């Protein structure tokens, strides 16, 4: 949120035009991409979009409300598994997951309603876990939400009748494409932008700045924090489902530490507490290894010098890059 | 007499120590009341109890005749008791206007759906909130600073902003914890005028803590003196100044009233 | 004893101190006055090495201390009671005082100092074993001053020591300051309580928007009409 | 259930708890001063184990020398990391410092894989440490005895250091308020350095204990114990040294007894158990068992 | 180590002169200890083939990518192999879980995928008709282990400890129990751990020790990085009962990490005995040693080596590098002799029916016990 929110009302008037222009441009770009890019690059474009959804929604809690949550991956898992189970054809379930409880064994839903159900389920979970846990602060909250992630992971690993445990659910329908991804990304951005420019968003930033003072001016800490957490969870779940149906699999490993930290890295690198920052962080942190570092480590001829294969170099360089960015731009690349 | 706030036998026990011990007060509508006492007497704690920022060990609080003991702090604010803090607690990274807007919005009427759709009722309400906040900033003389981040305001203006923010909630009772602290004599004289003006304009009742005796004696119609968590005196400025207990515990010597 | 030449201090882009020069003689009590935000605290922090100088030079007993690290200055005899008190809330009152003597030899006897401070502020003795965070604002202020004295400083920087204190204690603090002066401690005093400060100070500087506006002996300034109008309430 | 059974589980629990406790202390000591969760701590543990192995086997030095030298090397690494990656971020947000330490952790893991190969390596310990004692149905190795004794000795030494020495006092003061500590003449950078030296060298000991107990070292061996130790530190009240030790033992004992006393189908819920305990502790005591309540004074 | 065929020498323009084969391995991260040796051997085989003239007169170009032990990266990497590098065949990976993630990508693109090391027998059915296994299925080796326990060790009571963290260990334990119970054995106790995070098994072992009657054999279904650890902890806590495991044990790490007296009395099923003086085995071991200056770390290296030859064989028989033709030729594979045994994909099954080697650990040495073909 910036000083400009005052002018929000004025801006709203020109907004439909700008927004429409932006959407048309996005549509055109996606159209072209869809046409010229092969499956691999389209997958990257999808990953970028999904990460935008995830990081922007994480930003609402961590950046704007000051809730240091590490639970995003857990909500992604909830979304990923829910949609995988709801959209799996009934015949396939019969052989693939023979021990599925019957209420799950016989349902089959299209993608969209499944996404919405997944989002709502995550919202319910967010309220259940958030109600006790959001009373904690700072790092204590961070570890408690990290614990939530581990607990969800352990549950997934052990309810094998439903989840196939560590093996994950594989061979999912490849529903995710750039249209789904970017439609959801646009909706995510829109919703979060609207929320931030309303009393809810202002209450959230107030909590971030000084929760005691916020309380003193009538902000209901519990309900606003829960709302922020739940909105984040909603989009995390949908992002998780898109992710699963892009990889055509969901497994507990996908929704674990490296995912969680990857998201926080994007958030911090882009600039925490800024929407363009979150988007930028998602884009850059997704593309850098995928388009550059991975190629480098496989051995490459650079300006006539032959660099040998050195697997592991991409992670090393990525870590160094993160450290340097954070040191030289502690507020992120787009941070104010 | 129209009693706005009544506290009966409030007590706050910390481990080894009773910070507030059996404190009672009755404040009538429109009054400016003072609370003084040595450092550590329990003044701030009393404010914390009245605003539910700290849970009382025992005792009861009534506001406009309704019992509000144990009500959550944000609801207390909604009921009309607002405060400032001894150590300024602004939303430092937000602008002056945003600070006020956040407080003003507790009366907003739109719901989540209209936010998403940015419905006409939402826009209308937002505009109304902004207008109301700007008006308040105007009153407080902060209008030119509206887009400055709170952290960048000079200290005196920060104190004023804290008052503005509390006013934006639309309180009936305003609690001020050492509003003149860190101000030089000219600044605190100016503040005195402002507080009187606000009381009249917004029909406020004011309860304040202050160590600046000139300030308290001039402003307050009635003063309570707290020592070791208990009241040792209550009365008009003149009575307090000449009360030997107060002099020995707090004032040191009678203040020459200005 | 302390000499500052053309100090310039910035917070990021914003200049908080503009070409400020002043000096303090050994044994002097100098008051630094100014409205809120004038830059008084910034000057204190700059002298004590907590704030970096953009340009300018500070010498202390002839030694250039412009870039000396803050913790080393304490060993040179510069100590302060900071704005906002900054006491160690989780340590006990006694431990706070002990830490004040951190620079002294481990074996050195600091009992006398502690007793001296308890005599100045009996309230602290009563709360000796209490975590300092539980003290009231005024008690914390006493502790901050007491802690600053524990290192037996030669130059004491006091940033608004009377802030938030009850009248009785304000009197007390000013008495203490005078006692310290008599004991030949050099003091730079920042105060909003302009009248009292000028009563006890030898000289004073008036800061406005980061620059020195006026300076002179305390008596002159007390009678200065500008000072009267701006700081003494007419 | 026989008492042998219980005693056996308890010895298991104590040695695991000792390792957690030593590691947790490192987290806590650094966190206390810098409010930094040093995720790379687990990897320092890993390096400590590798160093000890190399010194003992490749350089054929005596085992006690391996212990001490690996502590020193780990301390050096810890101090270097602090200087290079963390010091510039003293005033950064929680998220920022967290991901920095995470990046450092990834960096160390990958460098270790490149240098030592990703294959786990055998960790040699002197023969007498491998001797198995059996009393009734209870058996344990000398290594386990060493783990428990050495941990206790180190923790007692640390407690004395913190309580009695000036550096200890300086550490407690810096943990509270860095600016104010500077005003007292405390060189906070030196204090931070000491915190990293203590934390890292204890981690090295924990690493070589893990290596000795399980007979192997690998580049990723630090992650899980590091994380558990961190949880232990939080349970105990992060920033609080006795709390870290307490949390470490509680967690070690809780974990082993959870797996040991409940029917085997619960074994897999071990990690969930760890974190459920953590969350429950925090709900009852939001700053851990011995943690001091955060200051919410107005 | 600059391998001649490795990496992207950006020779994509030279296009038709080489046959591109994709190698997907988890070269970094938790899986690296399995996959790095595999990649080495995979490349070694390609070098050998190229040195002897290639296939169909064309050279083989290996394009290997790192899955980083991360399912998302793994699938992304396979997608890149298929879409960008336009490889004709994909091979690699040792862990069934990752194969289940990556396989469908190749399947969708109609590119054959031969896993060098994954052994879960469900894989081909779950992925599709372009998916092949180079090793036998876990059912086969588990059956062999159960038979061996009952008949050769005369152990009719067993303790089963399972790592629930992978398809492989779960499947192996499942098939072992199935066969063991079927043939009249009795399971005294089943216990579990999570290989992804647990390194301390003392609680489970204590529970074992407190069984009223000690089982006669311990079947420990563990991943290679954990089997030595479990055995060591068992012995250190005074349990000397024979241990049986699967092919995950076939790594020098078992002894290195488990310790010498401790690993005695341990048996396992595997693909080949690397200590075998059989010509093809020593040839492989020597070649590996001379190229990488170390012994092949485990049987997965041998499997990957075989996989490359198997692919070359199929391409040769197909006479073209068309993926579908290669797939068809693979299906026809009959009696292909590799280091790890003979591979035939009979009756349309894409899991070879290979004989199982049973090994015994004796003072640190792996000793051949017998070779069986369970039915
Ligand atoms: N959280 C706490 N734990 C323990 N004691 C506390 C706590 N909060 C306040 N106290 C104690 O309660 C007493 C009253 O404190 P309070 O802050 O109300 O004083 P005050 O009258 O506002 O003083 P001042 O004028 O200095 O601000 C003090 O002695 C203080 O030490
Ligand atoms: N950390 C900071 N970052 C940015 N600006 C700052 C910072 N600290 C102080 N300032 C600014 O520098 C100027 C001088 O501040 P300083 O605190 O030195 O004033 P002061 O004279 O001590 O005021 P007061 O009487 O309120 O204590 C002010 O305008 C203030 O807003
Ligand atoms: C390492 C191996 C034993 C892995 C096993 N072959 C699997 O399919 O997962
Ligand atoms: Mg107070
Ligand atoms: Mg100041």
Question: What's the topology here?
Answer:
The complex is a heteropentamer of chains A (336), B (258), C (234), D (298) and E (375).
Chain A: H1 8-36, H2 39-65, H3 72-87, H4 90-96, H5 102-105, H6 111-133, H7 138-158, H8 160-163, E1 169-170, H9 178-196, H10 199-209, H11 211-216, H12 221-247, E2 249-250, H13 257-270, H14 275-297, E3 300-302, E4 305-307, H15 313-328
Antiparallel strand pairs in A: 1-2, 3-4
Helix pairs in contact in A: 2-9, 2-10, 2-12, 2-13, 2-14, 3-6, 3-7, 3-12, 6-12, 9-12, 10-12, 13-14, 14-15
Chain B: E1 3-14, E2 17-28, E3 32-36, H1 43-50, E4 58-63, E5 66-67, H2 73-79, E6 81-83, H3 96-104, H4 112-117, H5 120-140, H6 155-168, E7 173-177, H7 185-202, E8 205-209, H8 213-219, E9 222-227, E10 230-235, H9 237-242, H10 244-251
Parallel strand pairs in B: 3-8, 3-9, 6-7, 7-8
Antiparallel strand pairs in B: 1-2, 1-4, 4-5, 9-10
Helix pairs in contact in B: 3-5, 3-6, 5-6
Chain D: H1 3-34, H2 41-58, H3 63-86, H4 94-116, E1 121-122, H5 127-130, E2 132-135, E3 138-141, H6 142-164, H7 166-176, H8 178-183, H9 188-214, E4 216-217, H10 223-236, H11 241-261, H12 270-284
Antiparallel strand pairs in D: 1-4, 2-3
One adenosine-5'-triphosphate sits between chains B (14, 17, 19, 37, 39-45, 86) and C (134-138, 164).
Protein described:
- The complex is a heteropentamer of chains A (336), B (258), C (234), D (298) and E (375).
- Helix content of chain A is 74%, strand content 3%.
- By secondary structure, chain A is mainly alpha-helical.
- In chain A, strand 3 and strand 4 form a beta hairpin.
- Chain A is globular and about 65 Å long.
- Chain A starts with 7 loop residues before the first helix and ends in an 8-residue tail after the last helix.
- Chain C is an alpha/beta fold and 234 residues long.
- Chain C has a domain at 2-86 and 157-231: Rossmann fold (3-Layer(aba) Sandwich), CATH 3.40.50.
- In chain C, helix 3 runs parallel beside helix 6.
- Chain C starts with a strand and ends with a helix.
- In chain E, the strands form 3 sheets. Chain E has a 7-stranded mixed beta sheet with strand order 7-6-8-9-10-13-14, sandwiched between helices. In chain E, strands 2-1-3-4-5 form a 5-stranded parallel beta sheet, sandwiched between helices. Chain E has a two-stranded antiparallel sheet with strand order 11-12.
- In chain E, helix 1 packs across helix 12 (299-318) and helix 2 (71-83) packs parallel to helix 3 (96-109).
- Chain E is globular and about 65 Å long.
- The relative contact order of chain E is 0.13.
- The model of chain E is unreliable at 1-15 (pLDDT under 50).
- The interface between A and D is large, with 42 and 46 residues.
- One adenosine-5'-triphosphate sits between chains C (11, 14, 16, 34, 36-42, 83) and B (152, 154-155, 182).
- Chain C: Residues 2-234 form the ABC transporter domain.
- Chain C: Pfam families: ABC_tran.
- Chain C: Keywords: Amino-acid transport, ATP-binding, Nucleotide-binding, Transport.
């Amino acid at each position: 949120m910036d000083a400009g929110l005052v002018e929000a009302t004025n801006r709203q008037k020109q907004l439909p035009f700008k927004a429409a222009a932006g959407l048309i441009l996005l549509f055109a770009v996606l159209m072209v991409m869809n046409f010229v890019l092969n499956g691999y690059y389209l997958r990257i474009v999808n990953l970028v979009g999904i990460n935008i959804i995830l990081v922007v929604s994480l930003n609402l809690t961590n950046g704007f409300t000051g809730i240091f949550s590490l639970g995003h991956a857990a909500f992604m898992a909830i979304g990923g598994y829910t949609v995988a189970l709801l959209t799996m054809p009934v015949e396939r379930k019969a052989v693939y997951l023979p021990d599925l409880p019957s209420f799950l064994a016989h349902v089959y839903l299209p993608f969209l309603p499944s996404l919405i159900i997944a989002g709502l389920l995550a919202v319910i979970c967010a309220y259940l876990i958030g109600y006790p846990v959001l009373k904690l602060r700072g790092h204590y909250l961070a570890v408690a939400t990290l614990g939530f992630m581990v607990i969800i992971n352990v549950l997934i690993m052990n309810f094998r009748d439903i989840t196939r445990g560590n093996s994950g659910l594989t061979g999912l329908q490849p529903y995710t494409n750039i249209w789904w991804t970017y439609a959801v990304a646009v909706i995510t951005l829109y919703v979060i932008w609207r929320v931030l420019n309303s009393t809810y968003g202002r209450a959230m930033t107030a909590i971030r700045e000084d929760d005691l003072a916020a309380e003193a001016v009538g902000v209901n800490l519990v309900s606003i924090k829960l709302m922020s957490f739940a909105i984040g969870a909603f989009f995390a779940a949908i992002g998780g489902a898109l992710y699963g149906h892009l990889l055509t699999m969901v497994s507990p490993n996908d929704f674990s530490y490296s995912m969680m930290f990857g998201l926080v890295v994007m958030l911090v690198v882009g600039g925490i507490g800024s929407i363009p920052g979150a988007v930028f962080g998602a884009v850059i942190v997704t593309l850098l290894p995928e388009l550059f570092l991975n190629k480098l480590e496989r051995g490459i001829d650079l300006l006539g010098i032959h660099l040998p294969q050195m697997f592991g170099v991409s992670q090393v360089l990525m870590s160094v890059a993160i450290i340097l960015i954070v040191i030289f731009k502690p507020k992120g690349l787009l941070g104010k | 007499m129209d009693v706005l706030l009544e506290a009966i036998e409030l007590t706050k026990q910390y481990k080894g120590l009773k910070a507030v011990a059996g404190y009672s007060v009755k404040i009538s509508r429109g009054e400016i009341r003072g609370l003084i006492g040595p450092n550590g007497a329990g003044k701030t704690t009393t404010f914390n109890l009245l605003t539910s920022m700290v849970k009382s060990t025992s005792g009861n609080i009534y506001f406009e005749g309704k019992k509000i003991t144990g009500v959550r702090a944000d609801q207390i604010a909604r009921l009309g008791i607002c405060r400032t803090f001894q150590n300024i607690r602004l939303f430092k990274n937000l602008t002056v206007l945003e600070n006020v807007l956040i407080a003003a919005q507790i009366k907003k009427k739109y719901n989540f759906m209209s936010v998403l759709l940015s419905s006409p009722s939402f826009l209308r309400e937002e505009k109304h909130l902004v207008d109301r906040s700007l008006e308040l900033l105007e009153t407080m003389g902060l209008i030119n600073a509206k887009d400055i981040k709170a952290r960048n305001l000079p200290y005196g203006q920060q104190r004023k902003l804290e008052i503005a923010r509390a006013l934006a909630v639309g309180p009936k009772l305003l609690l001020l914890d050492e509003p003149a602290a860190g101000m030089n004599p000219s600044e605190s004289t100016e503040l005195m005028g402002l507080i009187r003006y606000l009381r009249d304009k917004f029909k406020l009742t004011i309860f304040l803590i202050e160590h600046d005796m000139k300030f308290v004696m001039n402003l307050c119609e009635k003063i309570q003196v707290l020592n070791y968590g208990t009241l040792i005196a209550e009365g008009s400025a003149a009575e307090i100044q000449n009360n030997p207990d107060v002099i020995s515990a707090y004032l040191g010597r009678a203040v020459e009233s200005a | 004893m302390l000499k500052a030449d053309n100090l310039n201090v910035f917070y990021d882009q914003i200049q908080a101190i503009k070409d400020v020069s002043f000096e303090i003689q050994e044994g002097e009590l100098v008051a630094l006055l100014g409205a809120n935000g004038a830059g008084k605290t910034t000057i204190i922090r700059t002298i004590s090495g907590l704030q970096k100088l953009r340009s300018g030079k500070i010498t202390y007993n002839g030694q250039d201390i412009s870039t000396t690290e803050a913790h080393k200055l304490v060993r040179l005899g510069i100590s302060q009671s900071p704005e906002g008190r900054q006491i160690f809330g989780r340590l006990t009152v006694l431990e706070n005082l002990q830490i004040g003597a951190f620079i002294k030899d481990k074996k050195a006897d600091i009992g006398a100092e502690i007793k001296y401070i308890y005599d100045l502020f009996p309230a602290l003795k009563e709360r000796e074993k209490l975590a300092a965070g539980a003290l009231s604002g005024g008690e914390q202020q006493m502790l901050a001053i007491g802690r600053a004295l524990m290192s037996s400083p030669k130059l004491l920087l006091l940033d608004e020591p009377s802030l938030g204190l009850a009248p009785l204690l304000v009197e007390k603090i000013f008495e203490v300051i005078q006692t310290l002066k008599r004991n030949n401690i050099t003091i730079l005093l920042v105060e909003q309580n302009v009248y009292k400060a000028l009563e006890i100070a030898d000289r004073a500087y008036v800061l406005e928007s980061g620059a020195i506006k006026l300076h002179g002996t305390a008596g002159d300034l007390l009678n200065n009409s500008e000072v009267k109008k701006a700081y003494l309430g007419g | 259930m026989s008492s042998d059974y219980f005693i056996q589980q308890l010895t298991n629990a104590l040695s695991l708890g000792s390792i957690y406790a030593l590691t947790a202390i490192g987290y806590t000591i650094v966190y206390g001063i810098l409010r930094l969760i040093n995720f790379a701590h687990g990897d320092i543990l890993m390096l400590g184990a590798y160093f000890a192995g190399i010194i003992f086997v490749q350089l054929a030095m005596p085992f006690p020398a391996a212990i001490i030298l690996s502590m020193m090397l780990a301390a050096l690494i810890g101090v270097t990391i602090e200087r290079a990656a963390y010091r510039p971020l003293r005033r950064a947000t929680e998220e920022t410092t967290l991901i920095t330490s995470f990046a450092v952790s990834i960096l160390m893991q990958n460098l270790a894989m490149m240098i030592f190969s990703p294959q786990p390596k055998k960790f040699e310990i002197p023969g007498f440490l491998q001797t198995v004692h059996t009393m009734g149905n209870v058996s344990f190795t000398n290594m386990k005895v060493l783990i428990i004794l050495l941990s206790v000795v180190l923790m007692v030494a640390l407690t004395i250091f913190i309580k009695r020495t000036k550096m200890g006092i300086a550490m407690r003061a810096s943990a509270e308020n860095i600016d104010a500590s500077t005003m007292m003449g405390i060189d906070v950078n030196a204090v931070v350095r000491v915190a990293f030296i203590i934390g890292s060298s204890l981690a090295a000991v924990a690493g070589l204990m893990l290596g000795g107990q399980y007979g192997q070292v690998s580049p990723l061996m630090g992650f899980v114990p590091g994380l558990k130790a961190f949880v232990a530190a939080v349970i105990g009240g992060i920033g609080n040294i006795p709390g870290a030790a307490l949390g470490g033992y509680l967690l070690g004992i809780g974990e082993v007894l959870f797996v040991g006393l409940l029917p085997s189908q619960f074994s897999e819920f071990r990690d969930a158990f760890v974190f459920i305990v953590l969350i429950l502790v925090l709900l009852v005591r939001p700053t851990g068992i011995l943690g001091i309540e955060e200051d919410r004074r107005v | 180590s600059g391998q001649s065929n490795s990496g992207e020498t950006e020779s994509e323009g030279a296009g038709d002169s080489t046959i591109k084969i994709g190698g997907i391995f988890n070269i970094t991260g938790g899986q690296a200890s399995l996959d790095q040796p595999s990649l080495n051997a995979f490349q070694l085989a390609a070098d050998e083939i190229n040195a002897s003239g290639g296939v169909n007169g064309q050279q083989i170009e290996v394009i290997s990518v790192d899955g980083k032990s991360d399912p998302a990266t793994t699938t992304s990497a396979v997608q890149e192999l298929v879409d960008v590098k336009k490889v004709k065949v994909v091979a690699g990976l040792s862990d069934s879980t990752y194969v289940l993630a990556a396989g469908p990508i190749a399947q969708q693109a109609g590119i054959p995928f031969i896993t060098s090391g994954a052994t879960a027998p469900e894989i081909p059915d779950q992925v599709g008709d372009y998916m092949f296994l180079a090793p036998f299925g876990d059912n086969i080796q588990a059956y062999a282990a159960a038979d061996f326990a009952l008949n050769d060790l005369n152990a009719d009571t067993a303790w089963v400890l399972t790592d629930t963290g992978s398809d492989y260990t779960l499947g192996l334990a499942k098939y072992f129990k199935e066969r063991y119970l079927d043939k009249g054995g009795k399971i005294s106790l089943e216990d579990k751990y999570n290989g992804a995070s647990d390194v301390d098994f003392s609680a489970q072992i204590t529970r074992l020790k407190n069984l009223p009657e000690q089982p006669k054999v311990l079947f420990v279904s563990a991943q290679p990085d954990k089997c030595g650890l479990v055995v060591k902890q068992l012995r250190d806590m005074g349990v000397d009962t024979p241990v049986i495991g699967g092919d995950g044990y076939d790594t020098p790490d078992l002894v290195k990490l488990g310790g010498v007296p401790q690993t005695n009395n341990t048996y396992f099923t595997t693909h080949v005995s690397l200590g075998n003086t059989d010509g093809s085995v020593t040839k492989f071991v020597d070649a590996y040693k001379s190229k990488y200056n170390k012994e092949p770390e485990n049987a997965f290296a041998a499997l990957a080596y075989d996989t490359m030859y198997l692919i070359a064989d199929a391409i040769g028989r197909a006479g073209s590098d068309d993926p579908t033709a290669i797939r068809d030729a693979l299906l026809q594979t009959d009696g292909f002799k590799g280091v790890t045994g003979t591979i035939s994909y009979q009756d349309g099954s894409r899991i070879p029916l290979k004989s199982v080697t049973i090994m015994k650990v004796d003072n640190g040495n792996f000793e051949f016990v017998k070779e069986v073909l369970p039915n």
